[in-house]
Amino acid sequence: MTYFAKRSVTFVIVLFVAVLAFYVGTAVVSSNAQAATTNVSWPVTTPQPANASGAVLDSEKAYAGIYNSVGPSVVSINVVLNTANSVAAQQGNPLGGQQGGQIEQATGTGFVIDTKGDIVTNNHVVQGATRIEVNFFDGSIYRGSLVGADPDSDLAVIKVDRPADQLHAVTLGDSSKLFIGESVVAMGSPFNQPWTLTTGVVSALDRQIDSLGQFQIGSVIQTDAAINPGNSGGPLININGEVIGVNSQIASASGSGSGIGFAIPSNLVKRVSQALINTGKVDYSYLGIQGTDMSLYTIEAMNLPNNARGVVVDQVEANGPAAQAGLHDASNPKTVDGIQVPTSADIITAVNGTPVTSMESLISYLGSDTKPGDTINLTVVRDGTQQISLPVTLSARPSGS
Questions:
Q1: pTM of the entire structure?
Q2: Strand pairing of 261-265 and 216-223?
Q3: 152 catalytic, yes or no?
């Protein structure tokens, strides 16, 4: 008999949700009060760097430099949500926030990407929002409007009407150059505490997480920098001050950070944000297969070498791009330890010469490096004995998928 351990850790979005309450106070005004006609001077609320005493470590200088240079680009986002359309309500409010009838207030994070007022955040931060308030580093508050949202990457672009000389755009780095162990910084509004800085490293690369659509997000960055509810949509930053990811989800048994956070890679952010700004939507390429990673069951059932890697094609969609190119469904199953394992299958080992070691790597390549209409060359090992090259012309993802 085979036993399966139930996972107590769940993957949750990092949006902070709380009750929207309205407080009404009574102002007492002296009968002798007179209207003032002088110019008003508002206090400066921009966080100021502290004057350090004693020796300062190089790492401390670097983190302080990142905070002061990138901080003005980061915004805290407050939204009023219609609970019928909000992600928090649809998922049973997994982050511990409280629902207040038909209206909720939620807090997330975002960052400025140009001097036109465009700001990147998570789709789940603004989905169902009836009001978007954008708070800047200097204390200014602006009304935000939705430019476009993409459920398949859980990214959105909102816009504010603010003078260009008061907008500080981030520098988007190249997420393909990240390495495990690289120092990173997260900035955001955990539990509605804006401009909080946490530090950590790149814990892993090429992870895969669920989107708000039918497809998963590939090339995801895993980090141990503390990420909590309210960090959603905020930047993950490298030591050079470049944004290399958008903090989006955590793996947690409690809904709070446990050292396993996930960020959507900057290379995908670049593509999605520009598409949303230009056309309001994102077109992804579509292969049309269901596949799984290589396992010991498959290796033994098909007599493959123990170092065999690739994506085992379980099912090919009828009339889809993969089917038209000649990929086959897995077949001839046999039972091993109570599990059905195919003994005949196509195994994708490379795309355009780039090795494919898992579904994560295949999803990542298709999402970041291809578009509908492109023709790619798949290297396929058929039945463990025959290596073939199949050209596949990709289509667009089916609408509603």
A1: 0.81
A2: antiparallel
A3: no
